[in-house]
Amino acid sequence: MKTRERIVLASLDLFNDNGERNITTNHIAAHIEISPGNLYYHFRNKQEIVRDIFECYSTELLERFAPVESQEESLVLLKRYLDSIFTLMWKYRFFYANLPEILQRDEVLHERYLSVQEKLRKNLEAIFNGFIDLQLLKVDQEEAKSLVTTLHLVASSWLGYRSAMSPRTDITEKIIHQGVLQMIAIVKPHTTPMGREQIQLLEDGIKAMNN
Fold first, then answer.
1. What is the SS3 assignment for the chain?
2. Which domains does the chain have, with CATH numbers?
3. pLDDT digit string (tens) for 26-58?
């Protein structure tokens, strides 16, 4: 693995485990046993590392939430998207936990974030229209847009909300599963009988993992 890739992966681990604000470039260099000068050869500062991590995140985000025309069963598609929500929130949890702070101090990153989110919004609307075609949801296009906005709001702010509700909140897989369950609760009232049956199976599976 190239040094630049090692720096990015190590930074992601350290940010997730300790909080991005608590980690310096010296911590990162020491973690992978390179000199600070070697790190600065690849990245001028920590903010450039954060931007590189965001590029990895945004690529994976758009790939995972790309509309698909598939012959897969609707239950498989639902599970795939729910798994993707969990995977991304866990893998990039430092970003979700401190999103406003990270974006506010980096105008370039904020612009990139907005661009990616606009692409994501269009993808999610197409995915929801696909669920309507599969007769899993019973909503019109305007309601679908509102649902997308609400789900995006929950996904992007869930970890920050949980941290604000407790003086000491360690981000665990269980907390992220609770966020996924919250999104299911938002969607469930808009499901058809077939959609409700399928999403209940997925909800029960997530709850079982948390017990």
1. CCHHHHHHHHHHHHHHHHCHHHCCHHHHHHHCCCCHHHHHHHCCCHHHHHHHHHHHHHHHHHHHCCCCCCCCCHHHHHHHHHHHHHHHHHHCHHHHHCHHHHHHCCHHHHHHHHHHHHHHHHHHHHHHHHHHHCCCECCCHHHHHHHHHHHHHHHHHHHHHHHHCCCCCCCCHHHHHHHHHHHHHHHHHHECHHHHHHHHHHHHHHHHHHC
2. 1-44 (1.10.10.60), 46-210 (1.10.357.10)
3. 999 999 999 999 999 999 999 999 999 999 999
